[in-house]
Amino acid sequence: MRDEKKTRSRHRRTRTALGALSGALAGFASLAVAESVSAAVRPQASPVVAVGGAAIDRTPAAVKDWAVRHFGTGDKVVLQAGILAILALFALTLGVLAVHRRRTGAAGVLVFGGVGAVAATGRPDSTGLGDALPSLTGAAAGALLLYLLAGRLGRADRATDDVGRTGAAGSPAGEQPSGDDWDRRGFVVAATAAAAASTGAGVLGRTLNGRRGRDAVASRQRVVLPAPGSPASAVPKGAQVRVAGVSPFVTPNRDFYRVDTALVVPKVDAGAWRLRIHGRGVRRPVTLSFEDLLRRELVERDITLTCVSNEVGGPYVGNARWTGVRLAGLLAECGVRAPSDGGPADQLVARSVDGMTIGSPVEDVMDGRDALLALGMNGEPLPFEHGFPVRMVVPGLYGYVSACKWIEDIELTTFDAYDPYWVRRDWARQAPVKTQSRIDTPKPFARPEAGTVMVAGVAWAQHRGIAEVEVRVDDGPWQTATLAAEDSRDTWRQWSFAWTATKGGHTLTVRATDRTGAVQTDERTRTAPDGASGWHSTVVTVE
Questions:
Q1: Mean pLDDT, residues 475-491 taken together
Q2: What integer pLDDT is reported at residue 184 of this predicted model?
């Protein structure tokens, strides 16, 4: 009797483990089939992307800042990994449940599909009910698989019970009905076939989704940017300080920060791309193609961009040479007037192909600054990650109120009539870039030798310019740093300070003054709702 109980206990544990495996296989099949079907719909409709996008939409500003601060541009990878981990746990649980309640376990998989379908159709860029198809099809395949595998486990268990009863009645020692072996082999065969088929479906989906972007890649490769009619001035020779560890004056495209909500980078065919301009005060609405923009006069400008999520001393700021079309001139041709000139619209809402909405003050866009519909970045067509084929660039405003990537629509409206994406999440409606400075070298907790130590970094106050940078050692007096040559008031400015360092621990602090005479505030604030403020400092130990 004791041996019989041990056998039953062992078989229950085995059955539970195989049930969990069945759930994992069903979850994998669901995602793989959904990926394959999304190739026929659109990549953004796959359940992981759709649920991830919905999670981003509903993430409080404080949590978003925490993710950007700790994971940087890898926050999307972390989010997707978290979603997959939760789905895996959910699938394992459903598998164990299905061993005892096959229909309930299979129904749970369908619930997962329903969540994905709701998330996909509820996204701002949803194209309709068709976006629900990948999640629903994948869930149906996963539910069917789990139901079948759980059925195999049920029959195997009943065969085992028969073995126990037969043995108790006096069957010869070690003799087992062949049915148990057949069911176990059947489960292994079915599970292996399901894993192989799911892998094939997933690879097929990835391949087909990759092909969808080939036309976009080819269209970018064909783009030849005409010589700008208004080229940028040469960068002054003294704009880059000769101190190791300072950020390069021009940020290479591969190193330029990227902060957005797109889990899948949109790949838009430039030949099929269109931009619509319409709304209040637009007397002549227009729809433009990429070629239409290329035929206009292009301007080239060095402009520093800053993300509102940049903490004091943070990395989310970069300087690039942008090539594009003057946005103010284009709007004027459509009959748009600035509010100061009697125009009825005070907000320009830019919409991207992935449904993002970004609101910019019309007054700022049309006040004479180099607000651009950018087509090029550092001498080449925009990288896909930075908005190809066209994006907005407006000096002096944080990106969330100006720098719409993958733009496809511009609507003139008012701040009272419409709240864009980030405003609905309690960020400020208007957000000029705050005067900031950063110490690039020495790094925190560095251990330089006593003597002359070069302290250096960058400062920015886009569209106002930097007039002065000062450095303080510990609680001593502020001392004027040496400014590098200024390119323009729309770019950051480098600085350096020769510090006679003495042995021991020291705190270095920096502050900047812009060309309006405003001194960078020491009041420490977080990034929400309109950008961080405070002085950047670093602690070093001089040996």
A1: 97
A2: 72
Nearest to 7 by CA among 191, 168, 186: 168
Peptide bond into 442 cis (omega under 30): yes
**CA atoms of 119 and 162, how far apart (whole Å):** 47
Which of 457, 426, 427 minimizes the C-alpha distance to 442? 457
* Eight-state DSSP code of residue 59: -
Q: Rounded to an integer, what distance in angstroms lies between the CA atom of residue 400 and that of residue 39?
A: 30
> Residue 49 has what pLDDT?
84
Q: How many CA atoms lie within 13 A of 348 on its CB side?
A: 31
State residue 503 phi and psi, 5-degree precision: -60, 145
Neighbouring CB atoms inside 10 A of 242's CB total: 11
Q: What pLDDT band is residue 61 in, cutting at 50, 70 and 90?
A: low
pLDDT in tens, 2-28: 667 777 777 778 888 888 999 999 999
**pTM attached to this predicted model:** 0.81
Q: Are 498 and 524 in contact (CB under 8 A)?
A: no
User: Two tokens at 437?
Assistant: 């400075």
Q: Are 327 and 392 in contact (CB under 8 A)?
A: yes
- Placement of tokens 């395949």 in the chain: 141
Cβ contacts of 347 within 8 Å, gap of 6 or more = 359, 360, 361, 362, 412, 413, 414, 415, 417, 418, 429
Using CA atoms, how far apart are residues 355 and 127, in angstroms rounded to an integer?
A: 10
Q: Check if the beta carbon of residue 116 is closer than 8 Å to that of residue 47.
A: yes
CB atoms within 10 A of CB 421: 19
Q: What are phi and psi of 514, to 5 degrees?
A: -90, 180
Which tens digit of pLDDT belongs to each residue from 181-208?
Answer: 335 777 888 889 989 998 998 888 888 8
- Please count the helices (runs of H) and the strands (runs of E) in the chain: 11, 18
Rounded CA gap, 397 and 432, in Å? 4
Q: 172: buried, middle or exposed (CB in 10 Å: 19+, 13-18, 0-12)?
A: exposed
**CB hemisphere CA count around 527 (13 angstroms):** 24
Residue 56 Cα to chain centre, angstroms: 9
pLDDT reading at 110 higher than 60: yes
pLDDT at residue 312, rounded to an integer? 97
What is the spatial distance between Cα 33 and Cα 154, in angstroms, rounded to a whole number?
A: 26
pLDDT of residue 77: 78
Contacts with 287 (C-beta within 8 Å, 6 or more apart), sequence order: 274, 275, 276, 277
pLDDT at position 183 is: 59
